[in-house]
Amino acid sequence: MATAAPLAEDIMKRRDFFARILAGATPFTALFPAPRSTRRHRAASPAGAGKLGRVGISTWSFHNHFDSTADEVVNPAERLVLMDFPEMIADRYKVHNLEFVAPHFASLEPAYLEELKGKLLRAHSRLVNIPVDVPAIQKGGGLSDPFPSARGRAIAAAKTWIDIAKQMGARSVRCDPGKMQPDDLTLTTDSYRTLAAYGRSKAISVLIENHGSIGSEHPEVLIQLFKNVDDPFLGALPDFGNFPDQATRLRGLPLLFPYAKTVCHAKGLNLDASGNETRFDFGKCVEISQRAGYKGVYSIEYEGPGDAYDGVQKVVNELLRYLH
């Protein structure tokens, strides 16, 4: 009889938790709701508590463990599937913000997506962003293609993933521009005006990463594109490592971070025995982001040698050293 009251209290807590989820709360806001007096005025914060709540992990960090993106043969016992990713990351790294790269989705069927969403819920995690690496956007000119039919296919593919992001509870998709013509951004601008408007209708931001020769070497072109479109649902996804040299990085990141919406990439390329990135000044990148007032998630993309699991942990540790 002594345990009846605690049991009843536990049942009520569980009911209240699931009621908040059904009402639209995230797992963490359901567990730790804001005080009534401030709930309307407080901006949504990343899942988790403290500095770890600003950290995310991308499935791309483990791309060699996914059949669809592996560059090398991996022992079958070491292969990953997306369904297992949320729990693995939560258990191993205590991180609850995730990026799922589009090729790692085993299916786009509604039943699969709902099951995957359930896996996120059970891990008390959330999907922040989907990098849309699909042929229609990556092949040819993509969203900048001079042929209307090819450009139309890229726009249609991006819209599909905006819909998926909405269903999965994400905040954004990353859709890169393809082969831009920096001297004439008309076609690229038109494509992103269409996507930003569609994203706005779904409350999903469309992001552009500093990829490719133009985006990485001439970030000013991306800034001009953002100004041309002039829509709050189009923004930047700054990547620490996607620059040809430190001078371009120090010029590009301060330009991009004011346009950063939901996520940036804290890249890991080559960490020494002490866990310090050796290819670029990681701490300076974090400093630039914080000086710009960036409030989003730092999603880890480990692309270095050796064991991906260990590499991700080293980048997590380095990021936590610099975040404040």
Structure description:
The protein has about 325 residues and is of the alpha/beta class. The chain is built from twelve helices and eight strands. It has an eight-stranded parallel beta sheet with strand order 6-5-4-3-2-1-8-7. β2, α4 and β3 form a beta-alpha-beta unit. α6 packs parallel to α7. It is globular, with a radius of gyration of 20 Å. The termini are far apart.
Short description:
This protein has 324 residues and is an alpha/beta fold. It contains twelve helices and eight strands.
Structure characteristics:
324 residues; 8 strands; disordered N terminus; eight-stranded parallel sheet; alpha/beta; 12 helices
Characterize the quaternary organization of these chains.
single chain
Mean pLDDT: 88
Structural class: alpha/beta
Number of helical runs? 12
Strand order across the largest sheet: 6-5-4-3-2-1-8-7
Task: Tell me the strand percentage band.
Answer: 5-15%
Q: How widely separated are the two ends?
A: 48 Å
Low-confidence stretches: 1-15, 17-46
Biggest beta sheet attributes: 8 strands, parallel
What is the gyration radius calculated from CA atoms? 20 Å
Helical content, roughly? Answer: 40-55%
Secondary-structure element pattern, one letter each: HHEHEHEHHEHEHHEHEHEH
Give the tally of β-strands: 8
Molecular shape: globular
